[in-house]
């Protein structure tokens, strides 16, 4: 065939590589099409306009006009992108090889481009005027997006991730939302790039608040009635919250849902659940969790009503994105699991890395049982065991994603999910998920907004750390905590820290064995990261060495002596941590009992906590407890509530930054 056939010049077909085609179809189909096109290439010709036509040896005829793979036609009868359309692309690329640069010219770099250059008319042509108007409603309300520039720019939206695969061509845009369900996200992504081009023109990666009503009168946060509810819970306490207060939450939830305030909606639902859990004497209830939720609602309200806070409105309150979005065919790499026990229930959270979008999704199941992690790992979901999904590769067309990045499998489409064994080849994960540089990761964590006003994303802090070397390990018997030092390629250290739980009896020994080299050289650890003592600490969900990743929470406990070579050490007290924890506990107890029902000795405990904070140098945090003591009384009002919220936010921020 060679170059004797006159074919239309199609820059879009030249730009598509195997990764882009795999996003539009699937990797297995792409590999098959490439092999067949190489072994027996089809005969290519020109059709109407810029259409490329391929005639295959088996008599199949495929045509691909401009506008994307969805515009292709093939006589094989397959729906969507078939191997013949993919074979047409490979054959076209082989028939028209790139012109090599002359000796006097350096190789041309890929031109810089931004999807923000697409016009609204381009969008209307691609997705239709109705969906553009649907997107405009979201734009008027405001939303948040994370932008990653590059050869294939990415916009991560609350409900979906959008990738632009071919420069200047809206026909080759990939979203993980199911085709035809949320195509309006393409317009939202383009507008997000416009905002990023204006606000952060030189940044490879950035977060932007898009839309809203700049200059329009904003009368408040929309949380005013919810704040009154939270204040009443604080004054009454969980102990004295009657059925009427719990029932009142339903009206607030409905109002928040109508307003599209996703994060306050989630927090208020949890607050109502805490009150119900206390009334039912359930182990779900925790005073510190109740206090966290009350303070969070106040923090979100303050963040958008303070001077200059309106610009962060969408990020703090959540967008009007749909609560759930069906996804098209996606590949999810299992990054481990976490098993917890509450009352008579066992809950398993499974973490999935989505390499195409650079985010971590979470699925969960719970059962009424007394089984532990190893037994739960043998239970089946979507035709595979929990252990296989947590450590393997899930390819599914039945996933439904929420704005908080939880994902569930639709029961009616379970047959369209497959699980294969993973060998822990996590080096293919994108930089947003995979960290080779611990110092850079630490800087990223330090730059994050305070926890109470961040997006309520379930796996926000789940990362994969590459391990260059494993250092010493030590075990604290009192806390039943194993700590192992790991290093990156530059010698910067981080700590893998696992704590024993009865529901996961093999957790510590599995971590010790995997990092001790019992399964080969440990290469990666996946888990939830935070900063403590000046370094990165990761709570491990999975560890990859040779063979399938180890999931500690699902591992069987050893039959003999465990913990490998970990050194037993006495628990060493941390005065700073102890002071912050004591202050947080006494403030949480105030929320538990209610500001209007505190015993007389509670002010003495507040003064004691204040003195401890001052001794470790946290003088501003300590002074906030003075204000609480001064405002308490037999009928605490708004000033007492404000003082408690101020103190609790300062103490919780000190705990997070420690």
Automatic annotation (TrEMBL):
Keywords: Metal-binding, Zinc, Zinc-finger. Residues 60-93 form the SWIM-type domain. This is SWIM-type domain-containing protein. It comes from Actinoplanes flavus.
């Amino acid at each position: 065939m060679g170059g004797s056939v006159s074919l239309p010049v199609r820059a879009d077909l030249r730009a598509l590589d195997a990764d882009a085609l795999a996003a539009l179809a699937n990797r297995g189909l792409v590999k098959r099409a490439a092999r067949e096109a190489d072994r027996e290439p089809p005969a290519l010709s020109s059709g109407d306009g810029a259409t490329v036509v391929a005639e295959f040896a088996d008599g199949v005829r495929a045509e691909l006009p401009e506008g994307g793979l969805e515009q292709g036609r093939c006589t094989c009868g397959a729906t969507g992108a078939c191997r013949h359309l993919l074979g047409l692309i490979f054959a076209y690329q082989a028939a028209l090889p790139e012109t090599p640069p002359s000796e006097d010219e350096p190789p041309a770099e890929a031109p810089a481009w931004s999807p923000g250059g697409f016009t609204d008319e381009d969008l209307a042509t691609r997705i239709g005027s109705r969906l553009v108007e649907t997107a405009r409603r979201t734009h008027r309300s405001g939303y948040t997006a994370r932008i990653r520039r590059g050869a294939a720019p990415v916009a991560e939206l609350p409900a979906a991730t959008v990738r632009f695969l071919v420069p200047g061509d809206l026909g080759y845009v990939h979203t993980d939302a199911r085709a035809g369900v949320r195509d309006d996200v393409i317009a939202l992504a383009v507008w997000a790039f416009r905002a990023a081009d204006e606000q952060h023109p030189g940044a490879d990666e950035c977060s932007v608040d898009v839309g809203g009503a700049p200059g329009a009168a904003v009368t408040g946060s929309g949380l005013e009635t919810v704040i009154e509810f939270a204040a009443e819970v604080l004054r009454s306490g969980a102990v004295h919250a009657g059925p009427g207060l719990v029932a009142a939450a339903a009206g607030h939830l409905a109002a928040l849902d109508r307003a599209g305030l996703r994060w306050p909606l989630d927090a208020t639902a949890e607050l109502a659940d805490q009150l119900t859990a206390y009334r039912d004497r359930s182990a779900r209830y925790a005073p510190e969790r109740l206090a966290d939720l009350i303070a969070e609602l106040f923090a979100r309200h303050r963040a958008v009503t303070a001077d200059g806070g309106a610009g962060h409105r969408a990020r703090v309150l959540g967008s009007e994105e749909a609560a759930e979005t069906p996804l098209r065919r996606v590949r999810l790499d299992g990054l481990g699991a976490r098993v917890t026990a509450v009352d008579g229930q066992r809950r398993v959270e499974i973490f999935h890395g989505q390499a195409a979008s650079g985010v971590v999704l979470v699925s969960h199941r719970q059962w009424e049982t007394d089984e532990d992690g190893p037994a739960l790992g043998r239970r089946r979901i979507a035709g595979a065991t929990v252990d296989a999904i947590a450590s393997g590769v899930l390819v599914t067309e039945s996933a439904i994603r929420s704005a908080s990045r939880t994902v569930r499998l639709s029961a009616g489409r379970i047959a369209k999910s497959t699980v294969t064994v993973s060998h822990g080849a996590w080096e293919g994960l994108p930089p947003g998920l995979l960290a080779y540089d611990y110092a850079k990761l630490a800087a990223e964590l330090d730059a994050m907004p305070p926890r109470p006003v961040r997006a309520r994303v379930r796996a926000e802090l789940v990362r994969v750390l590459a391990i260059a070397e494993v250092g010493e390990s030590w075990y604290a018997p009192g806390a039943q905590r194993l700590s192992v030092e790991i290093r990156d390629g530059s010698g910067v250290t981080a700590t893998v820290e696992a704590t024993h739980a009865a529901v996961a009896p093999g957790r510590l020994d599995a971590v010790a064995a995997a990092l001790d080299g019992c399964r080969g050289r440990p290469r990666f650890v996946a888990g939830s990261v935070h900063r403590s003592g000046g370094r990165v600490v990761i709570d491990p969900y999975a560890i990859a060495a040779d063979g399938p990743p180890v999931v500690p929470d699902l591992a069987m406990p050893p039959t003999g002596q465990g913990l490998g070579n970990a050194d037993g050490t006495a628990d060493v007290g941390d005065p700073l941590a102890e002071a912050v924890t004591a202050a947080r506990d006494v403030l949480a107890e105030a929320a538990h009992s209610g500001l209007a029902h505190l015993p007389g000795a509670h002010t003495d405990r507040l003064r004691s906590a204040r003195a401890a904070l001052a001794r470790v140098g946290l003088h501003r945090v300590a002074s906030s407890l003075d204000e609480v003591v001064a405002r308490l009384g037999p009928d605490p009002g708004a000033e007492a509530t404000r003082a408690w919220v101020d103190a609790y936010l300062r103490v919780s921020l000190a705990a997070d930054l420690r």
